[in-house]
Amino acid sequence: MKKLFLFIFLCSGLRGFCQDYRAKMQHVNVEIESLDQKKDSLLQLYDSYRLYQVIADLKKWGLPSTSPSEKIIYHSAYALVYDEPYEQAKWVAHIILPDVKNGNEGRSNDFRPDSLISTGSAVEQDYFLKTLMPDSTWKYDGFGYDRGHLAPSADFRYSKKALSESFLYSNMSPQVADLNRGKWAELEDAIRQYAIDHQTELFVVTGPVLHPGLPRIERGVNKVAIPEMYFKVVFDKKNSRGIAFLLKNQRNDDPWYAYSVSIDSIQHLTGIDFFPALEDQLEHQIESMSNASAWRSDVQPGEVEPLRADSLPRNSFNTLQAKLYQGKNETVTICGTVVSAKKSAKGNIFLNLDRKFPNQIFTVTIFKDQTVNFSYQPEVVLDGKRICVTGKVVNSNGTPGINVENEKQIKIMP
């Protein structure tokens, strides 16, 4: 009885204490659902406008030149020219947006033919066969090549539609697994990270190096050509910066940035004029660049790219190639740029070529008792110089290196 009196007292003394709010809660919930629907609708509209803008920007700045016989095929976020005799794209152009950082669309794996290719694109049976077994499982018979994306699906994870379209067979090329899952993937990741780190849009053109005489996937229905090399050309309009990469369709063991070349060199190789819409001076500027240091997120100030192997004196190698001779007991010549020079408290001298600690890739060591064989101070005179060092490549605390005994082993390059 006391509890009943207390309940009556509270309900009469506190206005609204015993009011039923369920109806009001339901009303608010309806409003929330309405707002969610409106938000979803606006996000879809935003995505559509964003994709329209991507294609507009591609048309304005990012498409290579084409011949009268070539037709540009446009999808939601990329464009391509299909090369029918080779059953794959001659090139695929797309834009990497900084928005990709916050994209949450997952890989769709909905591989399918491209209905926009009038002559018919490659199909699943060009890469493997599958047979439905009595136990309702599939038996796969592969032809030895990955369906390698030219425009990578991860670059479109901000848009479900664009990501799905990246799985069209017109965007595929037969890549060996060691390339597709190795350095090619590392290169794609690195370029994407650059766009995120610099909050800039990147114009990217990717393709196989096609020419008569390429081998074919003979068991496939369309006999797709197997490229020997692939290129990727990148243009950062905001920072007036360009770079290109060329990788063989095989296992590539050097770091991804070791395959950097100039856009000009890819133009000469393929005959493709990549960015004809640019003003001539800017086009020449960005297409002559080949140093990948600015595109790396792990480069310290003062570090440089290893010297190009084909620019070195005969029988000389760059710092990336040095590891091939480590422990071989062969006398070789390794060339690079001294980016850090240090004399330790014990009097030993360490010269790191091209990369500084802790990124070092090649170290020249001059022990204290050998410094008397130098007519100059190596840590002072050689700092910042391009040098060639001759000797046997040894393991220097986990890094390839040469222990130098006298100044005759070191030559300063012009």
Describe this entry's structure for a reader.
By secondary structure, this protein is α+β, with helices and mostly antiparallel strands. It has helices at 2-13, 22-62, 160-165, 177-198, 263-270, 280-287, 378-381, and strands spanning 72-74, 78-83, 88-96, 128-132, 138-142, 146-149, 172-175, 202-208, 229-236, 241-248, 260-261, 316-318, 331-343, 349-353, 363-366, 386-396, 399-403, 410-412. The strands form four sheets. It has a seven-stranded antiparallel sheet, with helices on both faces. A five-stranded mixed β-barrel has the order 13-14-15-17-16. Strands 4-5 form a two-stranded antiparallel ribbon. The longest helix has 41 residues, at 22-62. The radius of gyration is 30 Å and the shape is globular. The mean pLDDT is 92.
Helix and strand arrangement:
Elements: H1 2-13, H2 22-62, E1 72-74, E2 78-83, E3 88-96, E4 128-132, E5 138-142, E6 146-149, H3 160-165, E7 172-175, H4 177-198, E8 202-208, E9 229-236, E10 241-248, E11 260-261, H5 263-270, H6 280-287, E12 316-318, E13 331-343, E14 349-353, E15 363-366, H7 378-381, E16 386-396, E17 399-403, E18 410-412
Largest sheet features: 7 strands, antiparallel
Helix and strand succession? HHEEEEEEHEHEEEEHHEEEEHEEE
Calculate Rg over CA atoms: 30 Å
CATH superfamily of the largest domain: Extracellular Endonuclease, subunit A
For the biggest β-sheet, the strand order reads 1-2-3-8-9-10-11
Q: In the residues, how many domains can be counted?
A: 2
Give the low-pLDDT segments: none
According to CATH, the fold-level topology of the largest domain is Extracellular Endonuclease, Chain A
What gross morphology would you assign? Answer: globular
Individual helix count: 7
Look at the helices and sheets and give the structural class.
Answer: alpha+beta
CATH architecture of the largest domain: 3-Layer(aba) Sandwich
Beta-strand portion reads 25-35%
Average pLDDT level? 92
Termini separation comes to 105 Å
Q: Quick one: how many beta strands?
A: 18
